[in-house]
């Protein structure tokens, strides 16, 4: 099968709250450490208080969009899911939020000492839009949940928003541990043409030959409507071979897709609607909803209650009440 690339338009979600509301008395929050390819990621694990030692619940993992972290939207979602009988995990990708960064050597590495250690000048790789790395981070978070004592490893679901919507779609098609999935206002890679693929391979060649930055730092800034994310860097070369649209051909688990009628960042017909049609044609349980009168970012404001209700109902029906 031909490998396609991540969408030309990278969409995002950043929701800044004045302060998170206090958790309900019956909800417990724990900060957890998740290792992804040798780098520490920080997560927030939410679960009901007073669980019996052998009690196991279904779990939902939240995957953020552009610039998003475990703060904000996940903090609003978590109590609702826990009160409905789920364990809920949100985390920061490597180099985002509170998680540690991958490091890039800025000079030739000396020979390691007996412990395999070196002292060298490095650059912390922060706020990278790196589909390959973020896909690995999500799978590490799934692995963490699978080992959590109060999680039923046969009932793990994932949900993602915007850029995260494409990430969870790819993951659902490539990780059999995922049993249910939700994507809202997701960028799935629809609408890319051959020129974008050629440009990505050309960039990969330049990076390998040090004809440009090996990892974007001065380069890779987003423009247009995405220029608001001044700290983010995009690396199309790291998206080669990752296509949410292609992954949809492999998804076998129930999926709900929620789009915004007036989305100003993506063409929903080429993204969420297209994935829904692929699943429908393959007789995979799928629900496709378009929230009327809202824009991309309204999914976190005016559309939040409706989207959350739809997603929670979906996970309750297809994850919580399903038989492993």
CATH architecture of the domain at 27-99 and 133-192 and 242-320: 3-Layer(aba) Sandwich
Shape: globular
Please count the helical segments: 7
Uncertain residue ranges: 1-18
Topology:
Elements (H helix, E strand, L loop, with lengths): L26 E10 L2 E10 L8 E7 L9 H11 L3 E5 L10 E4 L16 E4 L2 E2 L1 H16 L4 E11 L1 H12 L3 E7 L9 H15 L24 E2 L9 H5 L6 E6 L11 H10 L4 E6 L12 H17 L4
Walkthrough of the structure:
- This protein has 324 residues and is α/β, with parallel strands linked by helices.
- It has a domain at 27-99 and 133-192 and 242-320: Alpha/Beta hydrolase fold, catalytic domain (Rossmann fold, 3-Layer(aba) Sandwich).
- The chain contains seven helices and twelve strands.
- Helix 2 (131-146) crosses helix 3 (163-174).
- It is globular.
- Mean pLDDT is 93; it is low at 1-18.
What would a concise description of this structure say?
This protein is of the alpha/beta class and 324 residues long. The chain has 7 helices and 12 strands. It has a domain at 27-99 and 133-192 and 242-320: Alpha/Beta hydrolase fold, catalytic domain (Rossmann fold).
Notable features of this structure?
324 residues; alpha/beta; Rossmann fold; eight-stranded mixed β-sheet; two-stranded antiparallel ribbon; 7 helices; 27% helix; globular
């Amino acid at each position: 099968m031909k490998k396609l690339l991540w969408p030309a338009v990278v969409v995002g979600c950043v929701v800044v709250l004045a302060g998170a509301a206090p958790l309900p008395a019956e909800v417990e929050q724990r900060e957890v450490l998740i290792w992804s390819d040798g780098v520490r990621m920080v997560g927030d694990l939410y679960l009901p208080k007073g669980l019996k030692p052998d009690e196991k619940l279904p779990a939902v993992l939240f995957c953020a969009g552009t610039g998003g972290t475990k703060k904000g939207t996940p903090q609003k979602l978590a109590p609702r899911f826990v009160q409905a009988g789920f364990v809920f995990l949100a985390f920061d990708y490597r180099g985002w939020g509170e998680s540690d960064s991958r490091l890039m050597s800025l000079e030739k590495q000396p020979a390691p000492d007996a412990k395999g250690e070196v002292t060298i000048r490095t650059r912390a790789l922060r706020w990278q839009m790196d589909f390959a790395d973020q896909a690995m981070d999500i799978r590490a978070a799934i692995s963490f949940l699978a080992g959590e004592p109060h999680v039923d490893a046969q009932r793990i679901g994932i949900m993602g928003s915007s850029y995260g919507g494409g990430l969870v779609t790819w993951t659902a098609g490539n990780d059999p541990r995922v049993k249910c999935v939700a994507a809202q206002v997701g960028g799935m890679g629809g609408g890319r043409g051959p020129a974008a693929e050629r440009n990505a391979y050309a960039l990969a060649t330049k990076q390998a030959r040090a004809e440009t930055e090996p990892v974007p730092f001065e380069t890779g800034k987003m423009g247009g409507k995405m220029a608001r994310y001044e700290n983010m860097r995009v690396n199309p070369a790291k998206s080669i071979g990752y296509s949410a649209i292609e992954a949809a051909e492999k998804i076998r688990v129930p999926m709900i897709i929620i789009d915004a009628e007036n989305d100003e960042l993506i063409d929903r017909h080429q993204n969420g609607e297209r994935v829904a049609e692929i699943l429908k044609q393959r007789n995979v349980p799928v629900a496709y909803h378009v929230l009327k009168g809202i824009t991309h970012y309204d999914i976190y404001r005016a559309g939040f209650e409706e989207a959350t209700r739809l997603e929670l109902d979906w996970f309750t029906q297809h994850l919580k009440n399903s038989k492993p």
